[in-house]
């Protein structure tokens, strides 16, 4: 990085906090085997927040990606999903986005997606656009594998594999069904039975070694 670009980065960091996720952990904490080990940045938050200025600094910058892409750092892919004039248009779009992300594979969407909601002001307005909310949408595949790992690891740590097999299996199925309703097999997603069978296989393999 040249001195000029370094100074530009230092200038932005003096006013903002860059927010990102560490990826490429060798222990596969992220469940994804990333091709690189780095921090993938996705939002910029202004510094200097206080009770007096919270209304102006509570949310991230509207132009986060424009700021991040000025620098030689890893930036999370992003797209504009749409601009909505009515609440019904927003809900319809969110429903489709949720369906697409929930039924995506780890290979395609990794863990899922982060949605950023921006209030756009009319061109005639003196007020600036603002980020009003953010949320994460996880794919069913990611949630199922995360639940599988946490359930099996919890059973190993508690040392109750043999004593409570039925209870552990029942709890996994119960927890899984809280989000498996989002599965749409017409979109190429694995059916519920795939993940339940996968958990059973993983559980039995670990039980034999414990």
Descriptive notes:
This protein is α+β, with helices and mostly antiparallel strands. Among the domains are: 1-77, no CATH class; 141-209, no CATH class. The chain is 45% helix and 16% strand. The chain is built from 8 helices and 4 strands; from the N terminus they run H-E-E-H-H-H-H-E-E-H-H-H. The protein has helices at residues 3-15, 54-57, 64-68, 87-102, 106-109, 140-158, 165-180, 192-209; strands at residues 16-23, 38-46, 112-119, 130-138. The strands form 2 sheets. A two-stranded antiparallel sheet has the order 1-2. A two-stranded antiparallel sheet has the order 3-4. Helix 6 packs antiparallel against helix 7 and helix 6 (140-158) runs parallel beside helix 8 (192-209). The longest helix is centred in the C-terminal third of the chain and has 19 residues, at 140-158. The chain is globular.
Strand order of the largest sheet: 1-2
**How does the helix and strand content classify structurally?**
alpha+beta
Radius of gyration: 22 Å
End-to-end separation: 50 Å
Biggest sheet, in brief? 2 strands, antiparallel
Low-confidence stretches: none
Mean pLDDT: 84
Number of strands: 4
Q: Helix content range of the residues, please? A: 40-55%
How much of the sequence lies in strands comes to 15-25%
> Can you tell me the overall shape?
globular
Q: How many helical stretches?
A: 8
What is the chain-wise order of helices and strands?
Answer: HEEHHHHEEHHH
């Amino acid at each position: 990085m040249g001195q000029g670009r370094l100074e530009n980065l230092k200038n932005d960091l003096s006013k903002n906090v860059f927010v990102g996720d560490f990826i490429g952990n060798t222990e596969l904490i992220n469940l994804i085997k990333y091709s690189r080990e780095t921090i993938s940045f996705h939002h910029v938050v202004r510094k200097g927040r206080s009770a007096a200025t919270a209304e102006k600094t509570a949310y991230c910058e509207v132009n986060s990606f424009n700021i991040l892409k000025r620098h030689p750092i890893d930036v999370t892919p992003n797209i504009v999903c749409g601009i909505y004039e009515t609440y019904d248009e927003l809900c319809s779009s969110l429903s489709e986005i949720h369906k697409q992300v929930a039924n995506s594979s780890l290979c395609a969407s990794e863990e899922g997606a982060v949605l950023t909601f921006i209030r756009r002001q009319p061109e005639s307005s003196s007020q600036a656009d603002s980020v009003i909310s953010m949320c994460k949408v996880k794919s069913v595949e990611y949630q199922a594998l995360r639940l599988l790992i946490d359930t099996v690891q919890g059973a190993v740590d508690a040392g109750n594999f043999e004593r409570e097999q039925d209870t552990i299996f029942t709890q996994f199925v119960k927890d899984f069904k809280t989000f498996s309703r989002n599965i749409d097999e017409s979109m190429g997603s694995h059916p519920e039975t795939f993940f339940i069978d996968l958990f059973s296989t993983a559980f039995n393999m670990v039980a034999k070694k414990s």
